[in-house]
Specification:
binds adenosine monophosphate, three-stranded antiparallel sheet, single chain, alpha/beta, 36% helix, 308 residues
Length: 308
């Protein structure tokens, strides 16, 4: 596995793969790798010739400087996790490498995400999605992958990245990957490592409440169900609910009644001490939005066209 820290080295490597017409899958991460990240890398390995992964704790997407400071980082441990899985190159740049100082800085395009960045994470973490869009656009421009992999745990982020790619006509296929959970249902997250044993135990309440909400779907309207969840967290002195919203999965607009033809998802953010965790649950089965096939290169293109 190649490890690059410089943009030029990465670009040179990518150019060589492109010359060989190899299909590139890309997995951007912030490190502190866990089985959720590894599931994205494995999927990329099954669907592409070459897998490139990046590890970069992007300061621009942290609205809270303490969160940025405390974010778990262990590069040696991360690198050891690639053993036994297909990953051809890892890009671990510095902040200066990703955001070089320049007298003439490139203007970020103004993108209209409609309602997608207005609620939930957009509302509670001002500026967060600007930072996410900025770094993912930069990384996609450097790696120029055929397929890029994102987890459904960050469902709103997945929708925004898909929209960004569409608005900017970036020639990449955005592939979503299912949430990987701990044995007790807690969604895997790098931030789980920051929980003390009691907090970790209590954190299972997030997923069990989401499951409880799904079981009550037939009993309540979306608004009543939202209130039920809010109520469940009301008397908890360790967990503080930031939001729970039941929304249309495509537009993130709140729904007032259940409709089978519309995919719906319940999204939650909870604070445990200083640690903020997010999760979600689909209220409808079978998703058109997240079942996207990978883009594949037609190999031996000349041989195929010679038959035509
Ligand atoms: P992060 O390092 O938190 O920025 O995450 C990098 C990628 O891994 C993002 O696309 C996340 O959505 C995805 N991811 C994080 N946790 C999980 C999980 N538990 N299951 C699946 N994907 C995940």
């Amino acid at each position: 596995m190649e490890i690059f820290s410089k943009v030029n080295e990465l670009k040179e490597y990518i150019a060589k793969q492109k010359e060989k017409n190899l299909c590139i899958g890309f997995v951007p991460t912030m490190g502190a790798l866990h089985a959720g990240h590894l599931s994205l890398i494995k999927k990329a390995g099954e669907e592409n010739d070459i897998v490139v992964c990046s590890i970069f704790v992007n300061p621009e997407q942290f609205n809270d400087p303490v969160d940025f400071q405390n974010y778990p980082r262990d590069l040696n441990l991360d690198i050891s996790k690639f053993k036994g899985i297909k990953c051809d190159a890892v890009f671990i740049p510095s902040v200066e490498e990703i955001y070089p100082k320049s007298d003439n800085p490139e203007q970020e395009p103004e993108l209209d995400f409609g309602f997608l960045d207005k609620i939930m994470e957009g509302q509670y973490r001002p500026g967060h999605f600007n930072g996410v869009v900025k770094v993912v656009r930069r990384l996609l421009n450097l790696v120029t992958p055929d397929n890029a992999y994102f987890g459904e745990k960050d469902f709103q982020q997945f929708l925004i990245i898909k929209k960004m790619v569409e608005l900017l006509n970036i020639p990449v296929n955005i592939v979503s990957c299912a949430i990987v959970r701990e044995y007790d249902g807690l969604a895997m997250s790098s931030r789980n490592a920051l929980l003390n044993p009691l907090q970790r135990q209590k954190a299972t309440f997030i997923h069990s409440t989401l499951r409880g909400a799904k079981q009550r779907k037939l009993m309540y309207s979306p608004l009543e169900l939202r209130n039920w969840v809010i109520n469940e967290f009301e008397n908890d002195d360790l967990l503080s609910l930031e939001y729970f919203e039941i929304v249309e999965a495509e537009t993130l607009k709140q729904i007032s009644y259940w409709k089978n033809s519309i995919e719906t998802i319940g999204c939650i953010a909870v604070k445990i001490g200083n640690v903020r965790l997010i999760d979600n649950i689909k209220f409808t089965e079978g998703s058109k939005l997240t079942n996207n096939a990978p883009k594949r290169k037609i190999k031996n293109y000349k041989r195929i066209t010679s038959y035509l």
